[in-house]
Amino acid sequence: MKRLSISLLAVLLTLASVTFAPSPRITRADKADPVAVAPESVGLATSRLGNIRAVMSQHIANKKIVGASALIARHGKVAYQEAWGMADAEAGTPMKMDTIHRIYSMSKPITSVALMMLYEEGKFQLNDPIAKYMPEFAKMTVGVDERDPQSGRINFTTVPAKRMITVRDLLRHTAGFTYGVFGDTSVDQAYRKAGILSDLTLKDFAANLAKMPLQYEPGTRWHYSVSVDLQGRLVEVLSGKPFDQFLQERIFTPLGMVDTGFTVPASKKNRFARLYTPNKTGGVDPIALCNGRDDCLSKFPNAAPSMLEQQGMLSGGGGLVSTAYDYLRFCQMMLNKGTFEGQRLLSRKTVELMASDHLGTIPGMSAGNGFGLGFAVSKAPGEAGMMGSPGEFNWGGAAGTKFWIDPQEDMIGIFMIQILPNSVDYGSAFRVLAYQAVAD
Questions:
Q1: Is residue 239 a contact partner of residue 124, using CB atoms and an 8 Å limit?
Q2: Which one, of 412, 432, 406, 374, lies nearest residue 106 by Cα?
Q3: Which of 208, 241, 274 is the last residue of a domain?
Q4: Domain boundary among 241, 261, 288
Q5: How far, in Å, CA of 92 to CA of 381, rounded?
Q6: Is 276 domain-assigned?
Q7: Whole-angstrom Cα distance, residue 125 to residue 134?
Q8: How far apart are CA 132 and CA 379, in angstroms?
Q9: Separation in Å, CA 67 to CA 58, 83, 332
Q10: Is the pLDDT of residue 178 over 80?
Q11: 215 CB neighbour count, 10 Å cutoff
Q12: What are the pLDDT digits (tens) for 270-321?
């Protein structure tokens, strides 16, 4: 069964180039939920935070969304957390802060952290060709579409790539790969025909990808792609461990991310949010969760099996599920310069490197934004036209989830929702509502 990458839809980018300030620890007793402090104690105005509830409640009342949740942490403390509506309206399950969500492309920063942990161990250098570790990528070609001036037909040819793909290209989306669903070039068509993101092992995925022509010359353009899935395979090659095992042992367990992974255990199914899709009236309809994948996919043909139920391929680009509380622990680790509750995952210098713009003059990102090693990077909020701070880094997921980490304000925002595709960016609306509450 082919998995088209709508599960990895490009999200709106707004953000980071970094100056860090230390943050206290966020503590969480085993199985206990974080307790929010008084907003004023961390420089947020309670009255202004009320705007978040008013807006989200109105969306619920207007049936624009079924449910959502959000939290804000500042100075290492949760200052705001609230859930609205239902996680599964048909089953009568309310949305809660510990509801499990498909985070899709919010998997990407976690995968990049995993790879950079191996960087710190001397397993590779950023400018190493990936063919040094995955030889199948040694002789890549670039696709060229040329229109015949007489017939108007598109003739497709390939030429050898001018240089090899580097590890840094994977991390910053400049490898020349694509997804195959955001355009209709001959390369996109080739991706779709090959079923690049089928339910394969990461080893087989990499072997298939190596046979595909590139969309662009490596290093010449930022282009959102399957490169993070390939990072997952590189983690396996460099560590000698299955990707999911590496994530569990090196990230999820040390950080106490107890609800994050590629599958949802049967014991937690009651906390797994339902997925919804926009309808023609401006509301949303449920996407049928099914026991028989064929039936489910016939109702939503552009979906992948893992989008609707559980992960097939261990997709570092979009296969994880998580909760707002779990993802907070990951974000706080990054804001704390690589450490959380006594567990150091990365050095301060590595975090600074990851949260710095690595594009420079390479085109592809929107105005005011750059891209680091796994995160969007805010260079100039005024150019981007979005409230925030220079030095902020963030990403989001196809179903509307979003997070940002603002070192200048010592602030984290996380928004969880399950609408695919997320045609209305409720996460960015929450971001504005969060920043307008800053009162110090």
A1: no
A2: 374
A3: 241
A4: 241
A5: 41
A6: yes
A7: 14
A8: 33
A9: 11, 7, 25
A10: yes
A11: 23
A12: 999 999 999 999 999 998 754 434 344 444 433 444 444 444 689 999 999 9
